[in-house]
Amino acid sequence: MATSDDYRHVPTSTLSRLAQRLGKVYASTSTWYRLMRQYNWRRPRKRVHPLKPKIGIRAASPNELWHVDATLLRLLDGSKIYLHAD
């Protein structure tokens, strides 16, 4: 369970309580950490999310795509100004 791909998103401390709740292993969190250190068990650290796209949105002709950026500026007197840029 400690090195399973099904539970790679679960932290080790939560994994110990989950194993107890599921009735698989009854051991404290410190025992889990000690056994992982003793037997050199490594948790899988594979990327769970898909890779980000390398190329962004591309327009085929002028004025095909528009983008507006909105920024909040806080002034010294405490008031707020919204700046919109095309």
Secondary structure elements and pairings:
Blueprint: H1 12-22, H2 29-38, E1 69-74, E2 80-85
Antiparallel strand pairs: 1-2
Helix pairs in contact: 1-2
Q: Care to give the gist of this entry?
A:
Helices cover 24% and strands 14% of the residues. It is of the alpha+beta class.
Report on the architecture of this protein.
- This protein is 24% helix and 14% strand.
- It is of the alpha+beta class.
- The chain has a domain at 5-38.
- Strand 1 and strand 2 form a beta hairpin.
- The chain is elongated.
Question: How would you describe this structure in keywords?
Answer:
86 residues, alpha+beta, elongated, two-stranded antiparallel ribbon
| Envelope shape | elongated
**Main beta sheet: strand number and arrangement?**
2 strands, antiparallel
Radius of gyration: 25 Å
Number of strands: 2
Per DSSP, the total helix count is 2
Overall mean pLDDT stands at 84
Low-confidence stretches: none
Helix content: 10-25%
State which percent range the strand residues make up.
Answer: 5-15%
**Class from helix and strand fractions:** alpha+beta
Give me the side-by-side strand order of the main sheet.
1-2
Report how far apart the termini are. 52 Å
User: Which series of helices and strands comes N to C?
Assistant: HHEE
